[in-house]
C-alpha cells in the first residue's frame, strides 16, 4: 500500500467483504486507531473512493456515538436508478431505444425483454400524453429493476 488513503480504503473494503449483507458499520475512531491516521483522512477516503458512482452508499454521523455505515449497492440497481431518473416528458422514442440497447448490451435484460420493451414503447409513445407516457415508462423500468437478478 503506497499511502494512507490506500490503507484506509483497503481496511474498509476488507471489513465490507467480511459482511454477507453488503453493509458494514464502522467508527472513525476505530479506523483511525487501526491505521494510525487522522479522522479527516478517513472522511477524504469516504468522499472520494466510496461514492455512489462506484456503487457505494455511505451514511455518516459524527460525534459521540457516531458511525459510518457503508453499503455496497448492486451496480444494476444504480443503472436502473439512473435510467429511471432520465425518463421525463421530453424523452424521445430514440432516447428510449438507446436505453433498451444499453440495458441489453450490459446484460440487464435479455433479447425477449428488449423486444417486449421496444413494442411497449412504440405502442404507447404516440397514444399517451407526455406525462402519462413518462409515468408508464418509469413504471416499466421500476418493474424490471424489481425483478432483476442480483449480481
**What Rg is obtained from the alpha carbons, in whole angstroms?**
20 Å
Strand content: 5-15%
Number of helices, where a helix is a run of at least 4 consecutive DSSP H or I residues:
7
Percent of residues in helices comes to 55-70%
How many discrete structural domains? 2
The CA-CA distance between the termini, in Å, is: 29 Å
Q: Provide the spatial order of strands within the biggest beta sheet.
A: 1-3-2
Mean residue pLDDT: 86
Biggest beta-sheet profile: 3 strands, antiparallel
Please write the string of helix (H) and strand (E) elements: HEHHEEHHHH
Number of DSSP-assigned strands: 3
Secondary-structure content class = mainly alpha
- Low-pLDDT segments: none
The shape is: elongated
Amino acid at each position: 500500500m503506497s499511502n494512507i488513503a490506500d490503507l484506509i480504503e483497503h481496511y474498509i473494503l476488507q471489513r465490507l467483504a467480511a459482511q454477507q449483507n453488503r453493509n458494514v458499520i464502522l467508527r472513525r475512531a476505530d479506523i483511525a486507531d487501526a491505521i494510525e491516521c487522522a479522522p479527516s483522512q478517513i472522511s477524504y477516503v469516504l468522499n472520494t473512493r466510496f461514492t455512489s458512482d462506484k456503487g457505494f452508499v455511505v451514511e455518516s454521523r459524527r460525534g459521540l456515538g457516531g458511525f459510518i455505515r457503508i453499503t455496497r449497492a448492486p451496480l444494476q440497481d444504480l443503472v436502473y436508478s439512473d435510467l429511471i431518473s432520465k425518463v421525463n416528458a421530453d424523452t424521445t422514442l430514440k432516447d428510449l431505444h438507446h436505453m433498451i440497447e444499453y440495458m441489453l448490451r450490459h446484460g440487464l435484460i435479455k433479447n425477449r425483454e428488449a423486444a417486449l420493451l421496444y413494442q411497449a414503447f412504440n405502442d404507447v409513445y404516440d397514444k399517451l400524453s407526455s406525462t402519462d407516457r413518462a409515468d408508464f415508462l418509469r413504471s416499466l423500468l421500476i418493474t424490471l429493476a424489481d425483478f432483476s437478478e442480483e449480481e
